[in-house]
Amino acid sequence: MTLSEEARDRLADIVSLQPTKNGELQDRWDLDSGSKVHSYLESELKEYYYRDENSLIRATPEAAELLGLDTDDDIVRVPRLQARILDVLAGPDGEPQSIVATLHALEAEGETTDVDAVRSGLRSLEDKGLVSVVERTVPTFRLAVDRNDIEIEVLEEGGTA
Fold first, then answer.
1. Both 91 and 44 in a single domain?
2. Number of domains in the chain
3. Residue 152's pLDDT is what?
4. Of 4, 39, 53, 151, which is least surrounded by CB within 10 A?
């Protein structure tokens, strides 16, 4: 199957962001809805992606091979906001933070964002196993792994690392 340049770029996003969700790809690809993401995946990239047991989107091994991308499992590739969240979030033994507390910590560091983006970022980091949720009256978050054990590569907006 020959892929267009757009399809190759989008496949590279899936390889870089996996595991990911429709909403994350919707934002990255500037599409109107998660159903448009699903339609695109099914029509253009059906052979190169699958959904895991948690319904998260992952690239097939052939996808990375086709693109010639390094899939080093020791490096976590995340969008800039998620990298910033990891910078300000409490460590594994620290006091967990609410979404709003995380937003305020980001703002104190000069980051301009909103609560929905922080919530989505925290949930994506949870899906990647980097953040754990501690249920209280409201969900609170902290790192699931030691900060020094994470090697982060920040993805450029609209492209790959």
1. no
2. 2
3. 87
4. 53
